[in-house]
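Quick one, probably user error.
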């Protein structure tokens, strides 16, 4: 089990870094777009573009904070795994579990705080990324840009769960997988099964790929 956990932690870290690199690329592509926009429209849309760039940079900052919290959480879980591994081979059938619990015990409060932070950062990411997407649609050539993962999670799981097409108020929260943190990860039999969140890193990947494509297309179409 510890080997499985170790692989999941490594895969999550790798996916987190890929997502962050993707947002870095979006900032670079947007700067190229901004230079084109400044010349093509003689500075008349610069303030709008600066607002969009600010939101993109904020998504990058939020994801960095999220990844830092995830990294600390992984470290705590790794400590527990290491303690369990060290206890393997004991004649006491509970030795591994007891060792894990003992190693985890001093970090329980911090792990609880990290879980809250990870969920908070995830929620905020969707708000800011959705704003960046919406604001960009008012700039030349970017109206077609839509990242459905960001849009749907923000609209149906974060911002408007009370509406008739959602009604998903408390679906739990999950993280620790390569797909990234998942909102409404666990549903009861009474809760709708739709609006499944594929995971924040998956949604970030779609956001970055489609934004980059839209920015390049807008420049090349001019």
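Nope, works fine. Designed sequence:
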């Amino acid at each position: 089990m510890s080997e499985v956990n170790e692989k999941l932690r490594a895969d999550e870290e790798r996916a987190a870094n890929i997502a962050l690199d993707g947002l870095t690329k979006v900032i670079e592509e947007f700067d190229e777009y901004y230079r084109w926009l400044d010349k093509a429209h003689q500075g008349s849309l610069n303030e709008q573009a600066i607002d969009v760039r600010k939101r993109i940079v904020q998504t990058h900052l939020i994801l960095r904070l999220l990844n830092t919290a995830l990294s600390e959480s992984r470290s705590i879980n790794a400590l527990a795994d290491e303690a369990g591994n060290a206890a393997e081979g004991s004649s006491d059938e509970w030795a591994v579990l007891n060792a894990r619990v003992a190693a985890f015990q001093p970090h329980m409060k911090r792990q609880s705080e990290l879980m809250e932070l990870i969920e908070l950062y995830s929620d905020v990411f969707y708000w800011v990324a959705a704003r960046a997407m919406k604001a960009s649609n008012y700039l030349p050539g970017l109206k077609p840009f839509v990242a459905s993962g960001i849009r749907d999670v923000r609209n149906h799981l974060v911002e408007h769960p009370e509406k008739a097409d959602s009604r998903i108020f408390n679906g739990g929260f999950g993280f620790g997988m390569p797909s990234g943190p998942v909102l409404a990860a666990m549903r009861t039999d009474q809760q709708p099964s739709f609006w499944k969140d594929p995971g924040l890193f998956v949604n970030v990947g779609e956001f970055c790929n489609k934004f980059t494509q839209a920015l390049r297309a807008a420049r090349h179409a001019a």
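The helical segments are 2-40, 46-86, 95-104, 108-136, 148-159, 200-221.
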